Amino acid sequence: MKGKEWYQADDVAQEYDDKRFSDGGRHIDRRERQAVLEALSPVDGKNVLEIACGTGRFTVMLAERGAEIVGLDISGPMLVQGRDKASEAGVGDAVEFMRGDAGRLPFPDDHFDAVFAMRFFHLADPPVKFLTEMARVSKDVVFFDTFNRFSSRSVYNWLLPMGSRLYARFEVEQLLDGAGLSLADEAHDFVLPYGLYREIPNEIAGHLREMDTALRGSLVGEKLASVSYWTAQV
């Protein structure tokens, strides 16, 4: 997996949320939370697994809404941050954070009601083993996002130290088919790349987000979207 050592560094874990989701990055965080909730809701009483949970942004959010959730990540420092967040939110008893390999999930078949991964498949190489494992341990929903090949992300990718795996639609369809999953829903967003939002103040980013959201509803916006959210069923 790309960036495995980088994500396990202590300083990365400590600064991860601030670097990505402060200022204009709040618009990214808001949209991602919305996408997760739309895919998994209602979550109250559900048994959920989050792959590559990082610092627990979504793990804690779902626990606050009544889910029993396991957050799995390769990074010990990230998991420490996640446990602290869960404790501060008062949901420590509803969350279990585990260090583990997403390519070999330590759970039996059909163990969870839903399995999801955000900000993971751009690092997954090869991705098929990860999606197959997610499908194996889910008895209903599998949800994930991808960065798109024919979008502004292609340009932004050149500036990243690790780069990202970018996906065309047919590649996602092949992945789903190979994992025995059926596509149930999809959404496409962010004509403007993530990096632009992170570099500007929240006030300016808000105006750009309004324009971006307006484009999202058009055929052009869907074709140029840099991020896609995929909801699949076992």
Automatic annotation (TrEMBL):
Q: List the protein's name.
A: Class I SAM-dependent methyltransferase
UniProt xrefs under Gene3D superfamilies: Vaccinia Virus protein VP39
Could you give a GO molecular-function term held by this entry?
A: methyltransferase activity
Q: Which SUPFAM superfamilies match?
A: S-adenosyl-L-methionine-dependent methyltransferases
Top-level taxon of the source organism: Archaea
**What EC class is this?**
transferase
Q: Does the keyword Transferase apply?
A: yes
Q: What is its EC number?
A: 2.1.1.-
Which residue intervals define the domain Methyltransferase in the entry?
Answer: 48-139
Keywords attached to this Swiss-Prot or TrEMBL record, sorted alphabetically, are:
Methyltransferase, Transferase
Extract one GO BP annotation from the record: methylation
Keyword hit for Methyltransferase:
yes
PANTHER family from the xrefs?
METHYLTRANSFERASE
Query: What CDD domains does UniProt report for this protein, alphabetically?
Result: AdoMet_MTases
